[in-house]
C-alpha cells in the first residue's frame, strides 16, 4: 500500500506565512522559507505554498520565494496563487516548483487544466477546490473563499479529473481553522467518485483527526497549517501515532 502523505500548508501573504479561521482574521506565522526547511527536516512528505491574495489582488506568485524554497528543500512542493496561463506555470516550474495548484483560473477557464496537463504532465497539475455547504449543496468558492460560484463541488471535481487534473486539494471552508476535524463525509464521497489522489484540507486540530481522515475517507494525503506552524502537532510524533494505528507512512 502507498504511504499516506503529511503535508504542511503555508498560506503566504506579502512574503509572510499567515493563518486564519474560516479564511478570515489572518495572523502572522513566520517566514515561509525558514518554515519550509524546518518541515523538511521534521519529515514532511510534501509542502504546499498558497499565495492567498494573488488572484484577488491580480498578482503573480513570488518567483524569488520559489527559488529560495527550492534551494532549501529535498521534498516535493506545490505552488498556487495567481496562475492563469501556461507561462505562469512554466515560470514556477523553472524556478524549482514540483507541481502547481490552480483554483479560480480553472473555474473561469476549464480548458486551462487540459492545457497544463498536456504541456507538463498530469502529475504536475493540482486542482484546489474550496467548498462550502450552502442550502443542502456543496458549492465551489473562488478568490480565497470570497466568491461563491454556481458549481456544485462534486460535479466540478469529476469534470476536472476528466480534463486532466492529477490531484485534488479539497478544502472544506466550513471546517477550515476550526480544529474540529476534517470533513470525512464529503472527502469519502468524492474519493469514491474519482481515481486520482485527494489531499484533505480544513479542520485538523489533533492527531486523532489525521487518523480519522485516513481511516474513514481513505484520502491519499492530509494537509494542515496552524497545528504545525504553532507547534501543536510535531510531524515525527504524528507519524508515529499514524503508524501505531496501522496507517502506512514514511518515517
Automatic annotation (TrEMBL):
Swiss-Prot/TrEMBL catalytic activity: 5-[(5-phospho-1-deoxy-D-ribulos-1-ylimino)methylamino]-1-(5-phospho-beta-D-ribosyl)imidazole-4-carboxamide + L-glutamine = D-erythro-1-(imidazol-4-yl)glycerol 3-phosphate + 5-amino-1-(5-phospho-beta-D-ribosyl)imidazole-4-carboxamide + L-glutamate + H(+)
Record-given protein name: Imidazole glycerol phosphate synthase subunit HisF
UniProt keywords, alphabetically: Amino-acid biosynthesis, Cytoplasm, Histidine biosynthesis, Lyase
Location of the protein in the cell: Cytoplasm
Role description: IGPS catalyzes the conversion of PRFAR and glutamine to IGP, AICAR and glutamate. The HisF subunit catalyzes the cyclization activity that produces IGP and AICAR from PRFAR using the ammonia provided by the HisH subunit.
Entries under InterPro entries matching the protein: Aldolase_TIM, His_biosynth, HisF, IGPS_HisA/HisF, RibuloseP-bd_barrel
Active site: 11, 130
Pathway the protein takes part in: Amino-acid biosynthesis; L-histidine biosynthesis; L-histidine from 5-phospho-alpha-D-ribose 1-diphosphate: step 5/9
Family affiliation: Belongs to the HisA/HisF family.
EC number: 4.3.2.10
Top-level taxon: Bacteria
Keyword Cytoplasm set for record: yes
Keyword Glycoprotein: no
Gene that this sequence comes from: hisF
Gene Ontology molecular function: any one: lyase activity
Alphabetized HAMAP family for the sequence: HisF (MF_01013)
Binding partners and assembly: Heterodimer of HisH and HisF.
Amino acid at each position: 500500500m502507498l504511504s499516506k502523505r503529511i503535508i504542511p500548508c503555508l498560506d503566504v501573504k506579502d512574503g509572510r506565512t499567515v493563518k486564519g479561521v474560516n479564511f478570515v482574521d489572518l495572523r502572522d506565522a513566520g517566514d515561509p522559507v525558514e518554515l519550509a526547511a524546518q518541515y523538511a527536516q521534521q519529515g514532511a512528505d510534501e509542502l504546499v505554498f498558497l499565495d492567498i491574495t494573488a488572484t484577488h489582488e491580480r498578482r503573480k506568485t513570488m518567483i524569488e520565494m520559489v527559488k529560495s524554497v527550492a534551494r532549501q528543500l529535498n521534498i516535493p512542493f506545490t505552488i498556487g496563487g495567481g496562475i492563469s496561463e501556461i507561462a505562469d506555470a512554466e515560470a514556477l516550474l523553472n524556478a524549482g516548483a514540483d507541481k502547481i495548484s490552480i483554483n479560480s483560473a480553472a473555474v473561469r477557464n476549464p480548458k486551462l487544466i487540459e492545457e497544463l496537463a498536456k504541456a507538463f504532465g498530469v502529475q504536475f497539475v493540482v486542482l484546489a477546490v474550496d467548498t462550502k455547504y450552502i442550502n443542502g449543496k456543496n458549492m465551489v468558492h473562488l478568490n480565497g473563499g470570497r466568491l461563491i460560484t454556481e458549481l456544485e463541488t462534486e460535479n466540478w471535481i469529476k469534470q476536472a479529473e476528466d480534463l486532466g487534473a492529477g490531484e485534488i486539494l479539497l478544502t472544506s471552508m466550513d471546517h477550515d481553522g476550526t480544529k474540529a476535524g476534517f470533513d470525512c463525509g464529503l472527502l469519502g464521497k468524492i474519493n469514491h467518485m474519482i481515481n486520482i489522489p485527494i489531499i484533505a484540507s480544513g479542520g485538523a486540530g489533533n492527531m486523532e483527526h489525521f487518523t480519522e481522515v485516513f481511516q474513514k475517507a481513505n484520502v491519499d494525503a492530509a494537509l494542515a497549517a496552524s497545528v504545525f506552524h504553532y507547534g501543536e502537532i510535531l510531524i515525527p510524533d504524528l507519524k508515529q501515532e499514524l503508524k501505531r494505528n496501522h496507517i502506512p507512512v514514511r518515517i
